[in-house]
Amino acid sequence: MKKLLLTMMLILVPVLIFAQPNTEFRSTWVISWDLVNRYLNVDGNKELCRDIMDNHARANMNAVIWQARQSGTAYYKSSYEPWGYYTGGTNPGYDILEYAVEQAHKRNMELHAWFNVFHCSSVVFGAPASKHPEWVCTNKYGEFMTNHRCLSPGIPEVREYLINVAMEIVRKYDIDGLHLDFVRWNEYTEDDMTSALTKEAEIAALDGQITQEQIERLNETGTLRYIYDAMHPYSNGVPEGFSSWDDWRRWTVTEFVKTLQDSIKSVKPWVKLSTAALGKYNWDGWQAYGTVFQDAALWFNEGYVDQLMPMHYHWTNASEFYSMLVGPNGDSDYIRCWGKYIQKGIEDGRLYTVGPGSYQLHAKNVWDNHESIVKKMREIEWVDGLQFFSYSNWVTHNYWGVANELFFPTPTKIKATVGEDTLAPETPVISITKLDSMVYRISIEESSFGEEPSRFIIYRSKDSTLTPESSNIAYIKYTNSGFHYNDYIKEQKGGYYYYGVTTADRYWNESELSNIVRTEELPHESVVPVPPILEYVRKLDSGYEVKWAHSGVNDCRGYRLYARAMDTNWYLLLDENTLDVGTTHAIVNTEIEEVPWFFSIRAVGLGPAGYESEDSDIYGAYISDTDRVLVIDAFDRTTGEWSLGTHPFTMKVCESLSRANISYDCGTDEAFEHKDILSDEYKAIFWLCGDAAGQDEVVGFNSMSYLANYLSKGGQLLISGSEIAYDMDYRGSYQDKKFIHEVLKVNYVSNGENGNGYKVDGTDQGIFSGLSFNFDDGTGGFRILKPDVIDTTNGSVPCFKYSNRNEIAGVQYQGTISNGQEDARIITLGFPFESIYVEEQLDQFVSRVLEYFNITEEIGISAPVERVEDFSLCRNYPNPFNSSTIIQFSLPEAATVKLEIFNVKGQRVYEQSYAFSLSGVKNITWDANDLSSGVYHYRISQLNGNQQLLHHGKMLYMK
User: Are 582 and 636 within one domain?
Assistant: First the structure.
């Protein structure tokens, strides 16, 4: 047998070669349109919030900057202002900010409420620009702003109102910080007032972003700006007590910040006040000090803010960031650097954190610069962390796990914001218990907990020299009740681990270190690692893409990739090599393309023996001349005999599709949920739930949305598993119930006892008429416990009944979903069809499903066809081709024909009808310049009431 040739694609860097700090602020800005969705119900929006917090936690971030006020509207229950645009302007049914604070603290993270200050463009009822139009800024002629409305910092009533709005948040919510944005005069000119904008466009005009055209206008003599107000018109001259308009404007903004800081410290002194200052302090054409009258260095030096977070969006690589902060080659006197102006604030211990513009790194295709920027910033002693703009860009790149591996591998605390004379918290007392040879429990004694929550910081060291200043942090817990921390020791063999704990208050001011405890001597022998998780296998134009993940990266030194062709033995790829522990992605090129291939991953343990883990799940992929099926493994299988090790069920389905010569790919429901696999690439989806209900979600929230959208466009779905209806209907959320009733067309009736007899019969009105199947009662190795009894609803019909009960075991539906224009086809089963353990019966089942889904061995043919005998076709020429090709054929009579072209995934890339009024030889030229190189299939059909297939073939495009 010919072996595979393996090409590795490294996704994660395996070894971190730079020192990790144990004190570093880490966060992203989460914008209003990312934190709430008007089209979701309460449960859906709460799940969205939890996803945001989980993503930050995955990246070992310790704070979230959460937008609470925007455009003069609120994303919390405000007694001053109306609900924001992205809630639909109505109460979303819960307090967004309250829930976000709760969820951040559950994950031991700070939450900073992001407060847009003077930019108040909304004029909906109740917004300040609507209630008080006289507060809006004017130009020198007394004309008010008509777009991008901003309130004037110069009006005392405006400052008082905004302080009252901000203090309601501080008093009402258990926030850790209040973050000020657009705390300055505006830069808008008369040109910005001339074209009407949608409300959404005005809201989307984010602070810190400006076009080069706007900058040039600002620097032109005579530009009409809106930097006056009704109380301070240009005609009255410079306000009394000030030598210039600019001095007065800077004073008004500073007065607001100073007064707000005093107000916060009088109520909740631990709440940090921070500001998103413009990236350039006092240099260049668009700068904070001279353009928008924002003196952030003064605020930082005088303690009017606790944390300075400039928006460093002008810079996109590490050297630019370094020069902007400390000057070229560290020249701190350089006029164009922050360090020159903020030394007093640094000496006083306030926080300065860097704000990279992730959106700019994305737009300029330099996303990977994140890593070098983070590393370079750690070389500057007074840089206390980073916050990235914005969350949505990190979602686009699914960067959370990557950031964890590359530059945020361990938890960190945040620098304390009070001096040494502050009363320190009580010192905790801890104990250690051995649970296993490599698992120890650290317990905090009950006397260590007070009535108010505190942060407990658990330090860990490989020697007895353990200090809060430099030792690694194993875990941080924000709580006021007892807890244990179980440390699963993976990377150390032999020696000891030492632990100590401090208590930190809301300022991150720490107690003395607790008593130090130690493990027993750790074993030297090798340990068998946990198996990796195979995420997906896809067939590419040439070769296979294999992706996996591993939660046990610290207990192994790498991975071994195993493969086999259909009906052959397993073997190790590259026998002499182990893939690096940082590798989670491989492209496998094959010399044999015509057969299905299957893949499995094993982790290789540390130690001299290098024990291998058990196999991951086994997934396969195959390409033939058919439409493509996606097989989704949505079952973690934590019960029964298959609770550990390889689960053969997905492989059984793949083998059945292989025997039917049908194209397919495989992946997990998590890969589908994260859009690593896209549904639109497939003619049908087989969703295997097994009996995982009660232990994991049958269909995740995002997956429900993706599936509904896919089906609304004529997609086809087979979903099976015991307790699907129980999980989604009987005990499900509103969104679950909506999905199972309106999309799957199923109602829950009951759970089965004794497998409901473990046999099903096809109904007369369903597609399985005349067939009977046995599913697994343990004979095949996995006993199904509680299959669902279900019922039809919203147009579905029964397709299976349990043999001994005459109750419905499966339903089918053909028709539109939601507002779709094309018919979907859906089969929902109350038992896992992959547990049909007799191969012949499983193949019969799959054959009926494929027939129902109109998937045949000829690509794209979705209905029986009638061939026209006197139609002739000359193959396309040239073939291969590198730009365009001519498809030539002859017609016996006048006709309208349709040309369709498909890629190797079965996706239609071209469709066009051509009317011919005479018989004879016809030519159609097809231009492929916008497509990638590869094999394409073409199909020509005659349209004469019923579509008749005339011919189909293959061609090769080579750029």
Answer: no
